[in-house]
Specification:
Thioredoxin domain-containing protein 9, 227 residues, cytoplasm, Glutaredoxin, nucleus, Thioredoxin-like_sf
Length: 227
């Protein structure tokens, strides 16, 4: 018991010491920054201010450019031809291939509507799979819903069904955001190593159903065939 108490005390002291060291380093850095600012003359400060303003102006221009290209909202595009035009003019594109009769597509719609507003740097589109047979063939889209994740005009990755999203219809918007972040198709601010999966109790039936369908992989396979 004594030995255990002693080792706990030692560990506590080590931790306290580390925290003190870290605080000291941070304080020293802040002091150095403050000193640097104090020593700056008027011209240097003015220069710093100008650079900051330029960066803000540039960010604002970039935002306007994205909005003019249809970023910031989740839109349906009418045809395959539009798809090629849209991906050509934007660096990052998420395109949802959907079908009216597939219930799970409505779940995806709900989440993408939220993410389109949040991630203006990325274009969010939807395209009816039945009206785009050539594209579905070319991109080998067999399961609906599928998200094609396009970077620099090339399809880099796919989110097929809900397999990557915790295998449940109740996945959160944050889970889909994390998955898009893994593909580098949005600017993700969270930790990619820490997926925000909700408690995974709901596996049960939706898990086996989705899995079976995904494996079967028939053309335009969907999770509503048996409904």
């Amino acid at each position: 018991k004594m030995a255990a108490d002693t080792s706990v005390e030692i560990l506590q002291k080590v931790l306290e010491n580390e925290i003190l060291q870290t605080t000291k380093v941070v304080e020293e850095r802040l002091d150095a920054e403050m000193q640097k600012l104090d020593q700056m003359d008027e011209d240097e400060l003015e220069c710093l201010k100008q650079r900051r303003l330029e960066a803000l102006k540039k960010a604002q221009q970039q935002k306007q450019e994205w909005l003019s290209k249809g970023h910031g909202e989740y839109r349906e595009i009418p045809s395959e031809r539009d798809f090629f035009q849209e991906v050509k003019e934007s660096k990052n594109v998420v395109c949802h291939f959907y079908r009216d009769t597939t219930f799970r597509c409505q779940i995806v719609d709900k989440h993408l509507t939220v993410l389109a507003k949040k991630h203006i740097e990325t274009k969010f589109l939807k395209l009816n799979a039945e009206k785009s047979p050539f594209l579905c063939e070319r991109l080998r889209i067999k399961v609906i819903p599928t998200l094609a994740l396009v970077k620099d005009g090339k399809t880099q990755d796919y989110v097929v069904g809900f397999t990557d999203l915790g295998n449940t219809d109740d996945f959160t918007t944050e889970t889909l955001e994390w998955r898009l972040g893994c593909a580098g198709v949005i600017n993700y601010s969270g930790n990619l190593m820490d997926p925000p999966f909700q408690s995974q109790k709901k596996f049960g039936t939706s898990f086996t159903k989705l899995d079976k369908k995904t494996i079967r992989g028939k053309k335009y396979d969907s999770d509503s065939d048996d409904d």
